[in-house]
Fold this protein.
Amino acid sequence: DSGVTQTPKHLITATGQRVTLRCSPRSGDLSVYWYQQSLDQGLQFLIHYYNGEERAKGNILERFSAQQFPDLHSELNLSSLELGDSALYFCASSGTSKETQYFGPGTRLLVL
Amino acid sequence: DQQVKQNSPSLSVQEGRISILNCDYTNSMFDYFLWYKKYPAEGPTFLISISSIKDKNEDGRFTVFLNKSAKHLSLHIVPSQPGDSAVYFCAASAFSGGGADGLTFGKGTHLIIQP
């Protein structure tokens, strides 16, 4: 158990809908990262928040957004969902951006 | 452009023997490298890491070797055990650049340990 929690574990929705994925980092960790794992692309970095502020963006679509709250949990919002957004979404946390990242169990999103 | 490459999608090794997983990278800004292990339906689990100032790091049965001039790293598992069967991901980061840009992952190698 990495200490990072993610909810929900599974999510099934329809095209055009909006969903919110939630992540709670390990106790004391200030950095939260989001990754997407799809069959053809592997694990790809989406976005990084540090202590409530956005630090870096990776391959994140404009339809996707994230935020980190004062209690340090983070939410990833996916809107106008398309079939191709079906993937595993992982959250990871670290103490600072220069420390090892520990991953949560992921949320499996299926868009029908 | 794949900056971290794991050219072997799968590897089969007999129990008790050495497993060697390879990884190549192209971005010379990478200075911190990690190996993660992943079981189906679970998140990646951190195994071992190495900074570019070192060429070897050991932790129990796991050793990572880094050859900066060749931009190559490898993970050695000795002896291999049935529980080591999983997908192994190589990842890299530019810590000297602040490390804010997340990890860049290879596509993974599925290690199968045969009894």
In short: The mean pLDDT of chain B is 94. The radius of gyration of chain B is 14 Å.
